[in-house]
């Protein structure tokens, strides 16, 4: 079933607005849930109409609200907005059943993307170099975006495009002779140490730098000896990365890298070189397309004949199109590389690639202040280790205080640690920068992963105590405002997932989960105050069954949402 209660009504609301305004329905996109819940579930802003209608937005909104009528929606104007609120009661059973029957697939829609393919370029760390903040964000964001598209029925080709070519291998290779421990050639951390030392030395000592360059030149020239060493470093790094990805539950469809395009560069360059706007400048090849003002031309080939990051990305885009015929190609990469991607995409369209506009740079902001006890240079593994360590202190504390139970505290600490870091990242709008704080992300209260994991485990526990979920129940008994509020949040997941896919914005899913948990918590609080409002109400089987079904739908929503975010959902906490 591909149309949820929410999407049907959103479409009907858009249709009603469109016919009142005499425009195509596709032009109208009512926003899901305005900031103030008192205003409704859907909202349409009239500002863009003011000019054409020569009327003030509030007057337009008032006029529209009066003429619109959509079954199941209460429509009213609030200032410049036309807001709609679901008359939810008749849909309660449908909402709960949709969630419960879908289980972990709730929020998805296998039909939405049927037959469509998206490539997601994410994580893409540089081999033998320290990992940086942006590798952490791209890994979490990319994983989640891939999950979301998969849930929406797209064929997803997740690509880990390793930075596995370049001078850094020269640095590691010549550095290894001096600082390396041959017994530790299989240790990724050791290679990074060697790189850091060699890099510092090369900055001070031109002869050392020249040696490193020479090594890379030998690699580019196909020198078997140099390539053998390179391959050994590469294998070590990939093995190291794989343990991290396994820890995070990430599986890439493809782990490849920039080195894939060695030997294919000449063909690409030849293809571009024929286009107007491409010229030689001091022995280097540059593309000078009609760019926006102040944008530098793109450099394809240096005067020593070596190719560049941009050239390899052009080749990679073509190669991926040939392999996957993508409908969308997403590059989940830091905002810092915006110019690079603008140039690459423009060059692709100048090359006449009809699919150039399917490429999207999914840019994100920075993390400030993320450091581990080991220091500021962060490896993702170090971050996860420290998160686990800190989580395990909390698990122990809570266990001793009787607030938490677990038969596998070590696994739980790992899951909480991962949940903390992942949610701490994904709850932020991807374009914003944020400041990382260990205590904040690991807190069991507030807008955190552990808080949501705990909310989920708690709901599992209530269901367990309630003796599981009844085969049938009467949804019309769920009349408390707190119950209807929870139904509303549960209902939103499929719509939010769709919006998150369109906007490449996992934070929308993250925020919804916080809303679900908050609605659940208000529901519990109610029951703590008045016995007959407890979920496990005594002496009224019918009511208890209905409440259990609602609780179960909330559990499903949390579990499905957290799973989309790549966050584990322990059942015992
Ligand atoms: N390896 C690059 C870096 O660490 C990111 C690669 C992103 N993907 C791409 N197709 N350029 O900055």
Automatic annotation (TrEMBL):
<dbReference type="Pfam" id="PF03485">
    <property type="entry name" value="Arg_tRNA_synt_N"/>
</dbReference>
<dbReference type="InterPro" id="IPR005148">
    <property type="entry name" value="Arg-tRNA-synth_N"/>
</dbReference>
<comment type="similarity">
    <text>Belongs to the class-I aminoacyl-tRNA synthetase family.</text>
</comment>
<dbReference type="GO" id="GO:0005524">
    <property type="term" value="F:ATP binding"/>
</dbReference>
<dbReference type="Pfam" id="PF00750">
    <property type="entry name" value="tRNA-synt_1d"/>
</dbReference>
<keyword id="KW-0547">Nucleotide-binding</keyword>
<dbReference type="InterPro" id="IPR001278">
    <property type="entry name" value="Arg-tRNA-ligase"/>
</dbReference>
<dbReference type="InterPro" id="IPR014729">
    <property type="entry name" value="Rossmann-like_a/b/a_fold"/>
</dbReference>
<dbReference type="InterPro" id="IPR009080">
    <property type="entry name" value="tRNAsynth_Ia_anticodon-bd"/>
</dbReference>
<keyword id="KW-0963">Cytoplasm</keyword>
<keyword id="KW-0067">ATP-binding</keyword>
<protein>
    <recommendedName>
        <fullName>Arginine--tRNA ligase</fullName>
        <ecNumber>6.1.1.19</ecNumber>
    </recommendedName>
</protein>
<feature type="domain" description="DALR anticodon binding">
    <location>
        <begin position="452"/>
        <end position="573"/>
    </location>
</feature>
<feature type="domain" description="Arginyl tRNA synthetase N-terminal">
    <location>
        <begin position="7"/>
        <end position="86"/>
    </location>
</feature>
<dbReference type="InterPro" id="IPR008909">
    <property type="entry name" value="DALR_anticod-bd"/>
</dbReference>
<comment type="subunit">
    <text>Monomer.</text>
</comment>
<dbReference type="InterPro" id="IPR035684">
    <property type="entry name" value="ArgRS_core"/>
</dbReference>
<dbReference type="Pfam" id="PF05746">
    <property type="entry name" value="DALR_1"/>
</dbReference>
<keyword id="KW-0436">Ligase</keyword>
<dbReference type="GO" id="GO:0006420">
    <property type="term" value="P:arginyl-tRNA aminoacylation"/>
</dbReference>
<keyword id="KW-0030">Aminoacyl-tRNA synthetase</keyword>
<keyword id="KW-0648">Protein biosynthesis</keyword>
<dbReference type="InterPro" id="IPR036695">
    <property type="entry name" value="Arg-tRNA-synth_N_sf"/>
</dbReference>
<dbReference type="GO" id="GO:0004814">
    <property type="term" value="F:arginine-tRNA ligase activity"/>
</dbReference>
<dbReference type="GO" id="GO:0005737">
    <property type="term" value="C:cytoplasm"/>
</dbReference>
């Amino acid at each position: 079933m591909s149309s949820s209660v929410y999407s049907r009504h959103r479409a009907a609301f858009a249709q009603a607005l469109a016919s009142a305004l005499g425009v195509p329905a596709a032009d109208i996109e009512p926003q899901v849930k305005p900031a103030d819940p008192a205003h409704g579930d859907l909202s349409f802003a009239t500002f863009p109409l003011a000019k054409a209608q020569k009327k003030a937005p509030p007057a337009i909104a008032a006029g529209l609200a009066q003429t619109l009528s959509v079954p199941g929606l209460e429509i009213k104007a609030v200032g410049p907005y036309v807001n709609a609120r679901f008359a939810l009661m008749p849909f309660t059973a449908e909402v709960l059943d949709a969630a419960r029957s879908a289980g972990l697939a709730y929020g998805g829609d296998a039909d939405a993307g049927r037959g469509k393919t998206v490539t997601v370029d994410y994580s893409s760390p540089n081999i033998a170099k320290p990992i940086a903040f942006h590798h952490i964000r791209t890994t979490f964001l990319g994983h989640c975006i891939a999950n979301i598209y998969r849930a929406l029925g797209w064929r997803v080709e997740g690509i880990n495009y390793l930075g596995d070519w370049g001078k850094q291998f020269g640095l590691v290779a010549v550095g290894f002779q001096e600082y390396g421990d041959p017994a530790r050639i299989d240790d990724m951390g050791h290679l990074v140490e060697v790189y850091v030392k060699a890099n510092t030395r090369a900055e001070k000592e031109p002869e050392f730098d020249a040696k490193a360059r020479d090594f890379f030149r030998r690699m580019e020239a196909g020198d078997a000896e140099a390539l053998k060493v390179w391959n050994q470093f590469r294998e070590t790094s990939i093995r190291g990365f794989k343990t991290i990805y396994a820890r995070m539950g990430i599986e890439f469809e493809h782990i490849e890298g920039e080195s894939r395009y060695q030997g294919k560069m000449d063909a690409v360059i030849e293809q571009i070189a024929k286009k107007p706007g491409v010229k030689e400048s001091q022995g280097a090849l540059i593309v000078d397309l009609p760019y926006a003002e102040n944008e530098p031309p793109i450099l394809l080939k240096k005067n020593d004949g070596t190719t560049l990051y941009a050239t390899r990305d052009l080749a990679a885009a073509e190669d991926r199109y040939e392999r996957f015929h993508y409908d969308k190609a997403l590059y989940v990469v830091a905002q810092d590389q915006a110019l690079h991607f603008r140039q690459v995409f423009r060059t692709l369209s100048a090359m006449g690639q009809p699919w150039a506009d399917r490429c999207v740079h999914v840019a994100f902001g920075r993390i400030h202040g993320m450091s581990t006890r080991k220091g500021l240079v962060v490896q993702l593994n170090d971050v996860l280790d420290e998160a686990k360590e800190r989580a395990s202190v909390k698990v122990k504390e809570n266990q001793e205080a009787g607030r938490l139970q677990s038969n596998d505290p070590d696994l739980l600490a790992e899951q909480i640690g991962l949940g903390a870091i992942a949610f701490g990242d994904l709850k932020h709008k991807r374009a914003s920068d944020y400041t990382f704080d260990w205590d904040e992300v690991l807190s069991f209260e507030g807008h955190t992963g552990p808080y949501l994991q705990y909310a989920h485990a708690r709901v599992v526990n209530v269901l367990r105590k309630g003796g599981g979920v009844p085969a049938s129940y009467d949804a019309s008994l769920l009349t408390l405002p707190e119950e209807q509020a929870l139904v509303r949040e549960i209902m939103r997941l499929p719509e939010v997932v769709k919006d998150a896919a369109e906007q490449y914005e996992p934070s929308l899913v993250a925020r919804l989960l916080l809303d679900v948990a908050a609605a659940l918590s208000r529901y519990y609080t109610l029951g703590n105050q008045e016995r007959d409002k407890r979920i496990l109400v005594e002496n009224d089987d019918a009511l208890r069954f209905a409440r259990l079904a609602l609780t179960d739908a909330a559990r499903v929503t949390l579990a499905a949402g957290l799973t989309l975010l790549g966050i584990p959902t322990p059942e015992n906490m």
